[in-house]
Amino acid sequence: MDVLNRVVEPFHRGAPPEPQPATGFYTDTTVCIGCKACEVACKQWNQLPADGFTWLGDSYDNTGGLSATSWRHVKFIEQFPVDPTPAEAAAGADLIDPGRWLMMSDVCKHCVTAPCQQACPTGALIHTEFDNVYIQPDICNGCAYCVAACPFGVITRSALDGHAHKCTLCYDRQRDGLVPACAKACPTQSIQFGSISELRDRARERVARLHEQGIAGAYLYGDAPSTTYSELHSFYLLSDRPSVYGLPDAPFNPWLRMKGDYVRAAVCGLAAIAALLPMLLAR
Amino acid sequence: MHSGYADRTITKAPNWHGLVALDTLFNNMTTGLFLVAALGELAAPALFAEVARVAYPIALALLLADLVCLVLDLGDPLRFHHMLRVFKPTSPMSFGTWCLTVYALPLTVLGLLSILPTHTLDWLRRPAMILGLLPALGTAVYKGVLFSTTAQPGWKDARWLGGYLVTSALLLGAAQLLLLCGVTEQREAAGALRPTLELLLVLNAVILGLLIRDVRATLARAYESTRLSELALLVVGGGVLAPLYLLAVGRPIGLTVAVLLILLVALLVRRVIVRLPHLLPGGRGPGH
Question: What ipTM does this complex have?
Answer without folding.
Answer: 0.94
